[in-house]
Amino acid sequence: MAFNSLILRLELVHSKVNFGEVASAISRAGGDITSIDVIRPGQDSSVRDITVHVAEIAEASLIESLKSLAGIQLINVSDRTFLAHLGGKISVQPNLPIKNRDDLSRVYTPGVARVCTSIHENPKKAYSLTIKRNTVAVVTDGTAVLGLGDIGPHAAAPVMEGKAMLFKQLAGVDAFPICLDTKDTEEIIRTIKAISPIFGGINLEDISSPRCFEIETRLAEELDIPVFHDDQHGTAVVVIAGLLNALKVVGKRIENVRVVVNGIGAAGVSICKMLLAAGVSRLVPVDRDGAIIQGGTYPHPMWQWLADQPQVESQPGTLKEVIRDADVFIGVSRANLLNAADVQRMAANSIVFAMANPQPEIAPEEAIPHVRVFATGRSDYPNQINNVLVFPGIFRGALDCRARHINEPMKLAAARAIASVVSERELNEQYIIPSIFNEQVVTEVRKSVIEAAILTGTARRIPPDFRSSGGAK
Ligand SMILES: NC(=O)c1ccc[n+]([C@@H]2O[C@H](COP(=O)([O-])OP(=O)(O)OC[C@H]3O[C@@H](n4cnc5c(N)ncnc54)[C@H](O)[C@@H]3O)[C@@H](O)[C@H]2O)c1
Ligand SMILES: O=C(O)C[C@H](O)C(=O)O
Ligand SMILES: [Mg+2]
């Protein structure tokens, strides 16, 4: 169930109502008061801000029940989530102040000209003399934003700003949101190439399938900085990390399990590829029209690729049919597609990762009693399988070793690193994946990614902490 935090600004007329009555009305309507601030005290009346934690579905009735109390005026209702977005969530800060003319002539003209000339003579110096080495573009066209779909570039911005915040807070990477007002593959490629000189890496985000595949492949070929479509590979990496640990909990081996992946878009394609690379031998990819089967013919090039793989099952069926006897369900599709009866028909000790955002394929309350390990992409339930565990550390590593690409061995190394943060002793049904606030995650992912980049020859710089020992200290 989704909860919100509301701030209710109320004026209370003391002769008609006391605070106790207000508090019990809130509680009867299902709200939990988390704080009270007196905004204007007074003899006859007072104004207070009451912060209430309440289920989304109970919000309207809570507000109505307060309005119906005599002696109360509801002045304002603010949603704390919206308040957190006022004016946007990030800003650009200078690294040093400009206090006098001397500073001015150093950071700007005339001093800056010598630095420009130096970069012109040796373009590699852009890495040491500009923000390039630590800056990533988070680029979307707004066509597959979370599970909300094609909501356009303006509406996509809050997600991109959120990713930029996470890049900075978790890995010290400066990320900038770029929301493009075009859905044309060639124009997107051209635009990203044109803006790339200032960036050390490109994080593609929420670009719908199948255009996302060509956009990423072409950019990776044509640019000399890493290009990473987070919804494809970030998601696949975190799924593999979670699955490696979940399989340990249920005592099954990856080669033996039957895996259903629902939603063969950006995330689903990459997850299927990585599952096959990790050893899955029985795979059932499913999209809107049911299972994608071995030997089938599909217009979508990635679906066709899957249909040509020997590990993909050849039995057709709807999701509700093919989920029978599955050991693992991975959902990267959309909300509310399964119910309790569906997951009950899975094999014993089943694993369900219902990762559609913001609402998963099955409500946690409905699934949890019937499955052994359950995870979502959300932060308000145990086992948050979200690509936020991946992109900060992967880019931290790629930037630090100036990797030209983020390749398969780097991704697999990242998945293993994330899984390894949960020790065998700590591992259980409720804890298969580390918290995003576990500082070891970025450290371990960075280290493993750099090692893999060096080994595969894509690193163009050995970071200082890898120089003497041949590995991170
Ligand atoms: N938890 C995470 O880290 C994470 C990461 C990436 C994506 N996601 C979520 O996964 C979902 C898909 O994201 P994406 O970027 O791959 O989007 P996408 O648009 O590229 O792919 C979605 C796919 O789901 C399919 N689909 C839609 N309805 C379906 C249905 N009823 N049954 C089966 N398939 C259906 C679509 O045809 C499409 O192929 C979104 O909800 C997104 O929020 C979660
Ligand atoms: O943004 C997220 O929470 C994860 C993911 O990138 C998604 O598109 O849902
Ligand atoms: Mg996304």
Automatic annotation (TrEMBL):
Family: Belongs to the malic enzymes family.
Cofactors (names): Mn(2+); Mg(2+)
Enzyme Commission numbers on file: 1.1.1.38
MF terms (GO), sorted A to Z: oxidoreductase activity
The organism of origin for this protein: Paenibacillus brasilensis
Keyword line: Metal-binding, Oxidoreductase
Protein name: Malate dehydrogenase (Oxaloacetate-decarboxylating)
Database matches in Pfam families: malic, Malic_M
UniProt key word Oxidoreductase: yes
Residue ranges of domain ACT in the record: 7-80
